[in-house]
Design goal:
mainly beta; Porin; eight-stranded antiparallel barrel; 2 helices; 60% strand; elongated
């Protein structure tokens, strides 16, 4: 089983996030935005949204809810937070995850959105066996890099978890499609 040292990677991830935000913020300041002319600049620049997921099949169910809020610094750069919860069940296995993430969004052109999201999830797994149940609880990090197609409030794309661990991650693959909606 591969161990992920969260304390060793967290400072590097936060540093990369800050460098990315400030470097693109400096470039984006030159573009300007009508958002900065609002009488209540903070709340008029906040968008709320997130995603809802549902999958089911023969003996399988997976449901997820991820509300989020992002602050638009200008037309190019946004950053925010997400809360997430998910439940999965398949035959004798069930799992729940609760956690949150910080996200940065960069739109170099109107139609393209780049994203970087650092997520921490608390995973609770339960295996039902004849001799009793086996339970497992732990924290696992994820760092998603994504690209999406922006059509106004809806963005459709794919993201990749560079910290994916097939033994511990809640998600069974490192690549994940996504659809997000913000208003």
């Amino acid at each position: 089983m591969k161990k992920v040292n969260v304390l060793g990677t967290l400072p590097q991830i936060v540093c990369c996030f800050l460098v990315m935000v400030f470097s693109f913020s400096a470039q984006a300041q030159q573009i300007g935005s009508p958002l900065e002319q609002s009488p209540h600049p903070f709340w008029s620049n906040v968008r709320f949204g997130g995603s809802v997921g549902l999958a089911f099949g023969n003996g399988y169910f997976n449901g997820a809810l991820s509300p989020s809020a992002v602050y638009d610094f200008n037309r190019v750069l946004s950053a925010g937070v997400t809360l997430s919860g998910a439940y999965a069940k398949q035959n004798t296995f069930s799992a729940t995850s609760l956690g949150g993430s910080i996200i940065s969004l960069i739109r170099p052109i109107k139609e393209i959105q780049l994203s970087m999201e650092y997520e921490q999830l608390n995973i609770n797994r339960r295996f039902e066996m004849e001799g009793g149940n086996l339970r497992d609880q732990y924290w696992v990090p994820a760092l998603f890099l994504g690209i999406g197609y922006n059509t106004g409030p809806v963005v459709t794309g794919v993201r990749y978890n560079v910290l994916h661990d097939s033994n511990r991650s809640f998600y069974n693959q490192a690549f994940m499609p996504f659809v997000s909606v913000y208003f």
